[in-house]
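Q: Hi! Curious about what LPXTG-motif cell wall anchor domain-containing protein looks like structurally. Here's the sequence.
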Amino acid sequence: MNRLNLRRVTAVAAGALLGLAGVAAVAAPASAHHSEVKVTAECDTAKGEWVTTWTVQTYAPEGVNNYRLVKAEATSRTGETTAPFTVEGINVTEDGANPLYPHSVSQPLVGKVRLAGNVTGASLSVRAQWDNTFQENDDRSASIKFSESCDKVVTPPPAEANPKATVTADCTGDVAVTLENGREATKDASFTVTGTDGFTKTATVGPGKDTTITVPAKNAGRIKVTEAGQEQPLFDDKPAEAKDCVEPGEPAGSYRSTCDELIFQVENPKDGKTVTVTFTPSRGEPQTLVVAPGETKTVKFPASEGLTVTPKAEGLDDTSPIAWERPADCTPGGGGGDQGGPTLPLTGAATGGIVAGALVLLAAGATLFVVARRRRVRFTA
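A: Let's find out. The predicted structure is below.
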């Protein structure tokens, strides 16, 4: 099943921005299928290794209970060199496995990985497929940067702090700066965190303790972390951006190929805005859906060899055709012509609330699209 992200254009930009910083902390996930990936890390100074904790949480409509991962790729970075690694417990479930969908939607997957102390960053990208055959096409990812190497400490220096900082952005653009003073430290660490437009906060962290300072998105263009006893900043850079974020209130839709039809459905949540989508087939007349908040509407096109349908909504700057694909369980000579072309996955993003879409290909020909707020509209095949 492919996913098509449809994004609404909002005329009330000020209202959309009000309270944006708090969305990730208090809002419920979007009702459509999607995954979220999170990462935290701490330095094990006894071994000189970074201990990273990765969490994958998936969301799906009511009645969808299980899923599997069809992609799970983790990469570490040391300077300009990258290397793959495996997160135990967050793995691809191969076709033919029993059970095929081993993970519960209600339970997050959590895995810990130790990385070398000189690693400068790491990331994990996943894609999920649920037991109703809906599958993500876009990667869901999380990444982390390390301010300095994690060094093994054999003998703690006398009367010294051992400060470290990690910097992680969330989907709202807010940045969490975690300040740590090593367990072997013998005095407090005095941190200063500065951002853009005059943002400054200080924190004193005792030995073996840590604290987190949140830098609002408007002040997070560049972040600098210093400690009173250190000559060089612990971190002085633009934070890595959170990727593939899904926010509540966005319309979701799906399309799927049956033996006789290519079917599109648009579901608009109650807290959404009215969305208008026009579907233009390669043969036959276009059909338009106007979907108000709380409504779900469907259009159908008779299946035939070579049939494609192009969705369009206001604000889209790239609309690629979606091909009917004959499901594997159709009998030869059945409805829908002899064969269909391959389904073309599309991904979408938007500027200031523009409705856009991303399409995800499933092995059985079923496809899903999920709408997410992004910064510009983009369709890729």
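A: A fun detail: Residues 1-31, 337-381 have pLDDT under 50 and may be disordered.
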